[in-house]
Amino acid sequence: MAEAHQAVAFQFTVTPDGIDLHLCHEALRQVYLSGLHSWKKRFIRFKNGVMTGVYPGSPGGFMVVVVSYMSYNKFRQLDPSLGLITKLSQHVPVSRYMSTDSQRIVGGVLVGTGLWVTIIMIMRNVLKSLLSWHGWMHARHGSVPWTTRGWMLLVKVFSGRKPMLYSFQNSLPRLPVPSVRDTCSRYLESVRPLMEDEQYERMKGLAEDFEKNLGPRLQWYLKLKSWWASNYVSDWWEEYIYLRGRGPIMVNSNYYAMDFLYVFPTSVQAARAGNAIHAIMLYRRKLDRAQIKPLMLLHTIPMCSAQYERMFNTTRVPGVETDTLQHMNESKHIVVYHKGRFYKVWMFYDGRLLLPREIEQQMERILADESEPQPGEEKLAALTAGDRTPWAKARELHFSRGKNKQALDAIEKAAFFVTLDDTEQRFDEANPVKSLDSYAKSLLHGKCYDRWFDKSFNLIIFKNGTMGLNAEHSWADAPIIGHLWEQVLCMDPVRLGYTEDGHCCGQLHPTLPGPQRLQWEISTECQEVIENSLTLAQNLADDVDSHIVPFNDFGKGLIKKCRTSPDAFIQIALQLAHYRDKGKFCLTYEASMTRLFREGRTETVRSCTMETCAFVRAMIRDETEAAEKHQNMYRLAMTGGGIDRHLFCLYVVSNVPFKCRVLSDPWRLSTSQTPLQQVELFDLVRHPEYVSTGGGFGPVADDGYGVSYIIVGENLINFHISSKHSSPETDSHRFGANIRQSMLDILDLFQLEKKAIK
């Protein structure tokens, strides 16, 4: 059996002479190695905490400052303690126990330490002031003014050397609170193209009344919070937008990431799982040790790293009214699902991380297990796919004691969740549309019971070796999981590799204990709850219309020759495509990050502007003006001048008609760019086939579209489109065709203009 264990810690028998205890030396050895591993990990975390706490200072800098200070005072024959020891001896008999030389040494160390801390605080606050300036964002592409160059030089000087992942957290500025007047003005500007004159005048009156009367009083609360909290938005955003949602998180909140588009490293399912799991665990080790380099814009400007903290060992726990995020400091196992059965797999043995071939060995044991699922076990995970309140009540009633509690704890405290899927998914050149659409839907929702949607992320390995991720959204945003995924895709086929027959490199472990099958006692009543959740989830999944468009007619290389931003170009193309698709404009959501600020997450760029609408209607001129307008709005969102997060927080502190009207507008076009953050990991010039397909999400509105896109290399843009079959207004394949045509038509405008100039 796959769950059998070979090592038993101790055995005992009762004899006439008493209890005869037999200890297993191998088991004791494993206990010793496990404890040693834990202590090493604690020490590393402590050391990293110290290094981060004193950054941009360092222990080496401390020695330089203290020794230099003491040497200077010795040469000048001055009291290094500046009279501190003398004053201290008046109250404590220090001089009785310390010689004069000892007092000088102690005094020098104390004053030198104070000087070192002062230097650190000055450098940190200067860096925070420098990072509060965002003029660099207004420089044109390809040209950097001297003022920006000088500013970047100062940032580098005060940033210290060899920063760790969390080194800049104390130096990042806080997210500013925009003025009520600016927010109301920008809001009215954003909705003007979507409203008739009468409707707009009514909304304008509500905004003016709010700006004059209640707005300033509510603003005072937000100002107070911005002084007290690290970020005045993020905790409320996590709580009210994600954790308090009572509907299914599958499709509505969770999102997915895909494998390579054209590369298939191996068709052996267990082998692909072995390399991928090992690569993920190596990433976690680097994360625990804070050895991942912080993301730096222009290789100079640090971004907040707070979201990385809950990537592993994290589960969203359902509640009746609101969910909570449960994060464990350490977890040494994963949980694997295959054909209706759950397995606990330890990731460490002999005091070390399992190697890829050893993990493959464990996966092979699971795949070879022919035992049947226990009653209610096969579709148990459907609870995480349905409404949150029934899941919370079932968890409290049926999973709070006995075997069920132990098994559920194993899942919720696992590093992450793995599904060995029994279906095959892959890009098929003979049938590209159907194969990619099926692949996307499988990653987004699967069978609705073969992913644990509450885990921070699920690794999904299909039967033919293709893989992907499904991630829960509340703990972090997509670029965080994207950073992990890029590392895995880079390490899997290149650094770890496979043998000629498709297996992981390395040797089998002769005495490795097998996976442990989780045991359940699921009652008939609980099974009825599972079936109800599954029915709801399947209806939701069946309604999703997914479509992927690998757009390879041109990419950012040609767009940049048009002297415009690739993102602005794509957003305008999406507006043109939507107008052609529905014959009207709509409120458009584009996600922008605010990680230039401490604990920043996202802000909304309202991409449907007056300029964009004018361009779409004309399709002849004003494209440059529309693109520049979009870029300005993107800059405002990144630098704390966005609209929606401020309005959201104002709504939290008070409920008024203006804000209720604002927040009730549906986002019928929700868009997001998946950035390729670690370009240096992929050689897309010599190996263009090693490209990520990107990822996607479900539609936000019942009659709207969800569009995610990734700009890969110079010549490829992948679009992930979603909508609902139940809406007569939407069709993902039709919208995909409109996007393709709109991209080509906008490019033609630039080419015609160039011909006219000549």
Automatic annotation (TrEMBL):
Carnitine O-palmitoyltransferase N-terminal domain segment(s): 1-47
GO MF: carnitine O-palmitoyltransferase activity
GO-annotated biological processes: carnitine metabolic process; fatty acid beta-oxidation; long-chain fatty acid transport
Family annotation (InterPro entries): Carn_acyl_trans, CAT-like_dom_sf, Cho/carn_acyl_trans, Cho/carn_acyl_trans_2, CPT_N
Keywords: Acyltransferase, Fatty acid metabolism, Lipid metabolism, Membrane, Mitochondrion, Transferase, Transmembrane, Transmembrane helix, Transport
Name this protein carries in UniProt: carnitine O-palmitoyltransferase
Any Pfam family: Carn_acyltransf
SUPFAM superfamilies xref list: CoA-dependent acyltransferases (SSF52777)
Choline/carnitine acyltransferase domain sequence ranges: 175-741
Reactions performed catalytically: (R)-carnitine + hexadecanoyl-CoA = O-hexadecanoyl-(R)-carnitine + CoA
Protein family according to the UniProt entry: Belongs to the carnitine/choline acetyltransferase family.
Signal peptide: none
EC number(s) from the headed UniProt entry: 2.3.1.21
Transmembrane segments: 50-72, 105-127
GO cellular component: mitochondrial outer membrane
Pathway recorded for this protein: Lipid metabolism; fatty acid beta-oxidation
Topology term for the membrane: Multi-pass membrane protein
Places the protein is found: Mitochondrion outer membrane
